Amino acid sequence: MTSKQKNNPNDKKIVIVGCGTYGRSLAMALAKSGNEVIIIDSNRTKLESLSQLSLNSDLLVGFLGDATIAADLVNIDIVNSDLFIATTSSDSINALAAQKAKLLFGINNVICLMSDKSKQSLYQKLGIRIVNHTELTIESLITSSVES
Amino acid sequence: MNVVIFGANEVGRSIAEWLLNDWHEVSIIDADNFKLQDTEDELGSIVVHGDPTSEEILRLAGTGRADIFIASSRSEADNMVCCQMAKEVFQVEKTICLIYSEENRSLFQLLGIDSVINITAVSLRSIQENLNVDAILPLMYIPGSTPANLISIRIAEDSETIGEPLSNLTLPNGVSIKMIIRSGAIIEDSVEDTILRSGDQVLAITDSINLDQLKELFQ
Amino acid sequence: MNFSSILVPVFGSSSDAQVVELACELLKPSGGRIFIIYIIQINRSMPIDIALPNEVMNGDNTLKAMERLTAKSKHEVKAELIQAREIGYAIVQEAEQRNVDVIAMSMQKVKRFGKFELEKTTSYVLKNASCNILIWQDETI
Q1: In whole angstroms, what is the distance from residue A18 CA to residue A41 CA?
Q2: How many domains, in total, are found in chain C?
Q3: Which residue in A63, C11, C115, C135 has the fewest CB atoms around it within 10 Å?
Q4: Residue spans of beta strands (DSSP E) within C20-100
Q5: CB under 8 A, 24+ apart: contacts of B81-85
Q6: DSSP sequence for B50-68
Q7: CB pair distance less than 8 Å for B85 and A122
Q8: CA of B81 to nearest chain A CA: how many angstroms apart?
Q9: Chains touching chain C at 3 or more Cβ pairs under 8 angstroms?
């Protein structure tokens, strides 16, 4: 739970790792529905792309840092977050950041994007939820093609 | 032994070469075909091309029957994932993971990776040993029920220990001297009777991590 | 062009006999040496010296058939079964160790995505062997 007073008890404090296509869209959607979102990326240009999106919300904050470094996670006050989502394009970086959040900072809800299915069960055993974005995309493509 | 290595870089290749010369079976995985080509030219048909964190490639490389898995690539995150796969999916007895800073050590140990080696610290220590700047160097950490450190002490010119047989010295609690090296050779006489000289290198075991007392005594 | 030694890798395919006969003709009429090898590729999930009775039987049968073919010639014939991790690498190694003048081997015509493609073993040998190489392609397909 966040230490901050909340307007709505359902609103969560969410950390998103990676300001790529997935991370950015996800962050915007979650902020739009009233959650407090911090998006962390080590690439300044990617973070700057956030400000061009003319967000009229102070719920979405970008942070320049490395989510695999404990000190940077402390800087974004990770211990008070409710949800941690790793969305970079590297499975290994996502796994490293997610395990730090889960095992070193005790975050309960950790989600990790992964493109290789063979590693899924390994991380699920540690209580990290694995989402395969290729499968998701294909699923929604199939659904929408059936609908039309 | 059967050893699978991830990382066809200088480190991985030297480990492979050393093991092959000792007649062990080695395979080396990398995603970079150019590095693998060089490795094959140099060391023979031991290379496997592909993503070393994927189960299929690890299986192709023979991880299922490996005694040791060594991750020596530049990416600590990749090293971590393939060591975890080797341990959890393929039940490899010993997994060794190279790191370049201390940042990830505690996490990797928590994850059950058997040895985590900081390459930067290893080279730094080797440089320190060569420069003889520090009087006391930790050489090896010995875990166990009472953890201890193997340390090297260089006797300074004005040390109060010079001129006395070692048995006359009062050493701090928990310190015992095991060996004395003088001008590059081990002194064969009993350690107790040896009279220390300036420049001697003393190898000692200590259960304390506080080395200040020793520093004062020998410097 | 008469050679004194030739290495012929055989694969248990229909072109084996043609390549071996061709090799015999290429050697000096007074007699040369011909090395016939059959390579069993051993996956790294198994030890290199594992006993695979079926594969060994296939290999032995192929080698015996090739030896019968060469029985009438004056050449010195050696046939050998080899277990290796990579077939191409093993062929190049054998050629180097036996210091042969030529490697004579057959290749399958492979079409991938509708286009001709040189399969892995052949292209490896072409790229890495330091002796002469003769490739025989079957007219099938």
Answers
A1: 5
A2: 1
A3: C115
A4: 33-41, 76-84
A5: B81/A91, B81/A92, B81/A95, B81/A96, B81/A119, B81/B53, B82/B6, B82/B29, B82/B52, B82/B53, B82/B58, B83/B108, B83/B111, B83/B113, B84/A95, B84/A122, B84/B111, B84/B112, B84/B113, B85/A119, B85/A122, B85/B53, B85/B55, B85/B58
A6: S-TTSHHHHHHTTGGG-SE
A7: yes
A8: 6
A9: B
B168 to chain A, minimum CA–CA distance in Å?
Answer: 49
Q: What is the mean pLDDT of residues B89-100?
A: 97
Q: Establish whether chain B is in contact with chain A, requiring a minimum of 3 CB pairs below 8 angstroms.
A: yes
Q: What is the pLDDT of residues A11-49, one digit of tens each?
A: 899 999 999 988 999 999 999 888 999 999 999 999 888
Interface contact B45-C90, CB threshold 8 A: yes
ipTM of this model? Answer: 0.86
Pick among C44, C48, C97, C130 to test the B interface (most B CBs inside 10 A): C44
Whether B2-118 shares its CATH topology with B122-218 is answered no
Mean pLDDT value of segment B123-150: 80
**B122-218 maps to which CATH number?**
3.30.70.1450
Residue A8's pLDDT is what? 60
C-alpha dist (Å) from residue A74 to A1, A19, A67, A69, B210 = 16, 19, 10, 9, 29
Q: Which two tokens stand for residue B168?
A: 């006359």
pLDDT of residue B167: 84
What domains, with CATH codes, occur in chain A? Answer: 13-147 (3.40.50.720)
φ and ψ of C111, to 5 deg: -115, 120
| Segment B102-111 mean pLDDT | 95
Q: Which residues of chain A have pLDDT under 50?
A: 1-6
**0.90 exceeded by the pTM?**
no
Give the tens place of pLDDT for each residue, C57-76: 999 999 999 999 998 888 99
Q: Which CATH number goes with the domain that contains C45? A: 3.40.50.620
Q: Does B71 touch chain A (CB under 8 A)?
A: no
Q: Give the mean model confidence (pLDDT) for residues B63-72.
A: 97
Orientation angle between helical segments A91-99 and B76-88, nearest 10 degrees: 80
Cβ contacts of B81 on chain A, cutoff 8 Å: 91-92, 95-96, 119
Helix boundaries (H) for chain B: 10-21, 33-43, 55-60, 76-88, 105-110, 119-131, 212-218
CATH number of B2-118: 3.40.50.720
The domain segmentation of chain B, as residue ranges, is 2-118, 122-218
List CB contacts (< 8 A) between B78 and chain A. 92
CA–CA gap between residue B34 and residue B48 (Å, rounded): 12
Dist CA B178 CA B198 (whole Å): 18
